[in-house]
Amino acid sequence: MLPDRDEILGALSTAMFEFQLRYAQTSRAVLHDEGDCIRFQTPIDFPLFGGVAMTRFNDASADRRIAEVMAAIRDAGKPQAWVVAPTSRPADLSARLLNAGAQQIVELAGMVVELDKLAAPPTPPADVRIVQAEDAGGVRDYGRIFPLLFNTPQTGWINGLDQVEAEIFKSGEDPFHRYVAYENGCPVCAGMTMACGKAAALQTLCTLPSGRNRGIGAALATQALRDERARGCTIGVLWAGPGADRLYERMGFRRVATCTIFLA
């Protein structure tokens, strides 16, 4: 049985926040916790890996605080993401950000499923092997595929991501469970889950063009979520980019919320 709506929205917001927070806690990152706002910078030159991860402004001070945070981002010298999740405050934060000059870049669909009701995935090709990345080579294979889901050129930031991903893996406090699908020994799909309380968050999933529409992504995601269920999670949550929700609906997920990401 699914928890109530507030718990689901909280789990979805936590999933986004915990993903960003782990990168914000690496050695070359800078984390600013201002009480009503948490923002961070990392050496990864891509907006999602730096920006505003949590906002809890009150109505009266929201416009002033937005202006202050946007000024701090400008002073940092590069555009950064501002995540507006279901639990962000004030309720009209998106409209206020637009009025302040932020640019909306994507709207994500928040989705949920009971893990014991996951649909059986299509059977992937016989020469596909799905494994959890448990060594540096597997983490590197994961890190070279999953950024493709952002549909943006990787020049200038992928090497920084490689280094940070390796640091998280070696830290001894790695919350991520990374998976890679290999076809004839070559990586073709990558995804990652992490537990957020009793919710298993499918944080990333990307399949190379050569591996798409053959059941590989669904098989990897299902295996990863079933592993999280074995670890004690009861529901699965995720944020789906435009068009990806159709895959997850086939797996049994249903849409319950939206998250908007701005460029500030």
Characteristics:
single chain, about 260 residues, alpha+beta, Aminopeptidase, 2 domains, 11-stranded mixed sheet
Task: Give the SSE map.
Elements (H helix, E strand, L loop, with lengths): L4 H20 L5 E4 L3 E5 L9 E5 L6 H15 L4 E4 L8 H7 L3 E12 L13 E5 L3 H10 L12 H13 L6 E7 L2 E11 L2 E9 L8 H15 L4 E6 L4 H7 L2 E10 L1
Parallel strand pairs: 3-4, 9-10
Antiparallel strand pairs: 1-2, 2-3, 4-11, 5-10, 5-11, 6-7, 7-8, 8-9
What is the topology, as strand order, of the major beta sheet?
Answer: 1-2-3-4-11-5-10-9-8-7-6
- Radius of gyration computed on alpha carbons: 18 Å
The biggest beta sheet is recorded as: 11 strands, mixed
The secondary-structure class comes to alpha+beta
The end-to-end span amounts to 39 Å
Compact summary:
With 264 residues, this protein is of the alpha+beta class.
Would you kindly provide a written description of the structure presented here, covering whatever features stand out?
By secondary structure, this protein is of the alpha+beta class. It folds into 2 domains: 5-109, no CATH class; 113-256, Aminopeptidase. It has 7 helices and 11 strands. The chain has helices at residues 5-24, 62-76, 93-99, 136-145, 158-170, 216-230, 245-251, and strands at residues 30-33, 37-41, 51-55, 81-84, 103-114, 128-132, 177-183, 186-196, 199-207, 235-240, 254-263. Strands 1-2-3-4-11-5-10-9-8-7-6 form an 11-stranded mixed β-sheet, sandwiched between helices. α4 (136-145) runs antiparallel to α5. The longest helix is centred in the N-terminal third of the chain and has 20 residues, at 5-24. It is globular.
